[in-house]
Amino acid sequence: MVGYDEAVYREVLGKAVSNIEEINKAVDEICDQGYKNLYLMGSGGTYSMASPVTYLLKTHSTIPWNWEIAAELIKAKPLSLNADSVVITASLSGTTTETIEAARYAQSVGAKVIALVGEDGCPLAECADYVFENPNASNDNLVEEIYIQYFAIAARFMRNNGEFPEYDEFVSALRKMPEVLQAVREQQDETALAFATAHKDTPFHMCVGSGNVWGETYCFAMCVLEEMQWIATKSIHAAEFFHGTIEMTDPDMSFMLFKSEDETRSLVDRVERFVRQHTDKVQVWDTKAFELDGIDPKIRPLVSPLVMSAMLERVSTHFSIVRDHDLDIRRYYRVVEY
Predict the structure, then answer these.
(1) I need a labelling partner for 73 at 20 to 30 A (CA). Which of 8, 82, 108, 227 fits?
(2) pLDDT at residue 244, as a whole number
(3) β pairing state of 130-133 and 112-117
(4) Quick one: pLDDT at residue 122?
(5) 76-106 residues labelled b (16+ CB within 10 A) or e (exposed)
(6) Signal sequence: where (predicted)?
(7) Nearest CA to 161 among 67, 32, 55, 52?
(8) Of 171, 190, 212, 198, the residue nearest 308 (C-alpha)
(9) Where are the alpha helices (DSSP H) in the chain?
(10) What residue ranges do the domains of the chain occupy?
(11) CATH for 177-322, options being 3.40.640.10, 3.40.50.10490, 1.10.8.420, 3.20.20.70
(12) What is the CA radius of gyration of the chain?
């Protein structure tokens, strides 16, 4: 397949899996020392990548959690962020200014900081108490490797809290992700190419998702289509679609519907039933379409975000090729002062 190196992909995801043992030790140490709440914090893509973890915590745990945009956290200074807090964050380069500043602030109030980075020794690593690195990670494998580690961290906190009886099966599924997600990318490639070819000149897309793939919906719309391809989008939660966005539905509107296998799937189904009555431009990205060999059926919904990410990478890559617009090109982001 074009656009990425399969050997590197397996290596990067394999490194994320190998980090699980050290992650467990770090979380066990924090739990032994005591904590009261978790803060999942990031900027742009790493903010959206925390979304599936918050959904897992919301539906499977009583641990208090907060989901924060780094730049807003710095200004708002949440009162519950203190010495009893654990901040979990990520940055591939480790140089994202807002994330670094937020991590420093968290440490200044006594919170412990867990950071996922490309290379240890980066600026973000210098203001974290626990650092997990993945040196060969890059934009074409970043999300899946971050998810593996984010989920491993949250699952361990839940397990240590006397919750999440699915822990062993879930971690077993995470360990299988290098093979499983490679198969997903292969199966998705042809469909992704056809979509990218058909929509290379479409000027606007409505991206609708929910539940544990809401973060993927938001990230694909903003970080890929807007940032990397300069295509206008709107990401809308399926639960909110009928409270305003419904009026944007017409025969010329392009819809991408992102379907997980969790409890909220019916929300996207409802949107699909409506929009198909008014436009033929409807693309459904559905994690149910893939076999996921070796994954327990009851665990499938929990790993849907990883599957969705693997699917969408193929769409991103083919868009960049058919539109002759490399995913690394920027006009403003980290190019000019702002």
Answers:
(1) 227
(2) 97
(3) parallel
(4) 96
(5) eeeeebeeebbbbbbbbebebebbbbbbbbb
(6) none
(7) 32
(8) 212
(9) 6-18, 20-33, 45-49, 51-60, 70-76, 97-108, 123-126, 142-160, 167-175, 177-198, 214-219, 265-275, 304-322
(10) 6-175, 177-322
(11) 3.40.50.10490
(12) 19
Take residue 295 and report the two structure tokens written for it.
């994954």
Residues 6+ apart with CB under 8 A from 162: none
Q: Is-contact 131 139, C-beta < 8 A? A: no
Rounded Cα distance between 199 and 185, Å, is 20
Residue 113 tokens, joined: 């900081």
- 46 CA to centre of own chain: 7
What global pTM score does this model have?
0.96
Phi, psi torsion values for 258, nearest 5 degrees: -105, 110
- 303-322 burial, b at 16+ Cβ within 10 Å, e below that, comes to bbbbbbbbbbbbbbbbbbbb
6-175 in CATH: which number?
A: 3.40.50.10490
Q: How far apart are CA 89 and CA 94, in angstroms?
A: 10
Rounded to whole angstroms, what are the CA distances from 204 to 67, 221, 256, 263? 28, 10, 11, 29
Strand partners, 42: 69
Q: Are strands 254-259 and 282-286 parallel, antiparallel or unpaired?
A: parallel
Cβ-contact 215, 49 below 8 angstroms: yes
Residues of the chain with pLDDT under 50: none
Tokens of 244: 């305003």
Backbone angles phi, psi at 150, to 5 degrees: -55, -50
The β-bridge partners of 88 are: 40, 114
